[in-house]
Amino acid sequence: MTETTTETPGKSAGPVVRIVDLKKSFGKTEVLKGIDLEVSRGEVVVVMGPSGSGKSTMLRCINLLEKPTSGHIYLEDEEITDPKVDVNKLREHVGMVFQSFNLFPHLTAKKNVMLAQRKVLKRTAAEAERVAIAQLERVGLGDRMDYLPGQLSGGQQQRVAIARALAMDPHVMLFDEATSALDPELVRGVLDVMRSLGRAGMTMIVVTHEMGFARDVADRVIFMSDGYIVEQGTPQEVFDNPQSERTKDFLGRID
């Protein structure tokens, strides 16, 4: 992954994300029951599992959109769960794409991508515009940058959301069921963008049920159930020779 390291000088050679004994409860309901996970630089990790298994909660804990009940999360060399850490500064390095696009309806695609650059990274208007144009072209929307969200398809809006996250120069990208709200014919365009990011060396943690994408792009597949990581391995290991009965049952139902 020399190319990726060259793009981001000064980073440590250790894991980009490290999770140690992560637990999260909502009231009396324990959603995460002790998650341990390391994600290396340039690795694409796909997380699968039934609804309610804790997949999205784990992602939201990584950038503290949900505050862990206990445990530790490290982003590169810094513990993001340390009460003394500047969470907003660390969060700048984590891009997240949700099921919903969360675009401002009154702003064009380009201005949606520019906004956080201006407010968070304090880039000049000219620099933010340059980056926005480059990222919109990267996701195949160079001819739609002056369109409002309402003039774009759902798949195009999701690609704007991806461009917005990429414009912040993230060290890791989190995708939480990024295609689940899309009509089937629009899914492919978004997955193609995600494929290209993975192949370019972007560190990614992807919650999805898209098994074809996982087989094609993932370095590692993680299966979660009932708040635990039940099984993990290469796509071939998990899909073709699952060891856990829970994994076998899940794959049998979605295949």
Written account of the structure:
With 255 residues, this protein is an alpha/beta fold. The protein is built from 10 helices and 10 strands. The protein has helices at residues 2-7, 55-62, 87-91, 109-119, 125-138, 154-166, 184-199, 211-217, 235-240, 245-254; strands at 17-26, 29-39, 44-48, 70-75, 78-79, 94-97, 172-176, 204-207, 220-225, 228-233. A 6-stranded mixed beta sheet has the order 6-7-8-3-9-10, sandwiched between helices. Strands 2-1-4-5 form a 4-stranded antiparallel beta sheet, covered by helices on one side. α7 (184-199) links the parallel β7 and β8.
Q: Concise description?
A:
The chain has 255 residues and is of the alpha/beta class.
Query: Roughly how many Å is the radius of gyration?
Result: 18 Å
**Which structural class do the helices and strands define?**
alpha/beta
Strand count, sense and barrel status of the largest sheet are:
6 strands, mixed
Q: What is the number of E strands? A: 10
As residue ranges, the low-confidence spans are 1-12
DSSP helix fraction: 25-40%
Overall pLDDT score: 92
Q: Separation of termini?
A: 32 Å
Count of helix runs: 10
Order of helices and strands: HEEEHEEHEHHHEHEHEEHH
Shape: globular
Looking across the biggest beta sheet, what order are the strands in?
Answer: 6-7-8-3-9-10
Content of β-strand: 15-25%
Descriptive tags:
single chain; 255 residues; 6-stranded mixed sheet; 23% strand
